[in-house]
Amino acid sequence: MVRRELRQKYKGSSLGVLWYLINPLILMGAYALVFKVLLRVASVPDYPIFLISGLIVWVFFSQALLASAPSLVVNAPLIRKVRFPRETIPASVAAVQAVTFVVMLVLLVPVALIVRGNLDASLLLLPVVAAGLFCLVLGFSLGFSILHAHYRDVEPVLAALLLPWFFITPIFLRVDQFPGAESHQWLADLLEWGNPVAPFVDSVRQIVYAGTAPSVGQLAYVIGVGLGAIAIGVFAFRRMERDLAVIV
Question: In a 3-state reduction of DSSP, which class is residue 125?
Answer without folding.
Answer: helix
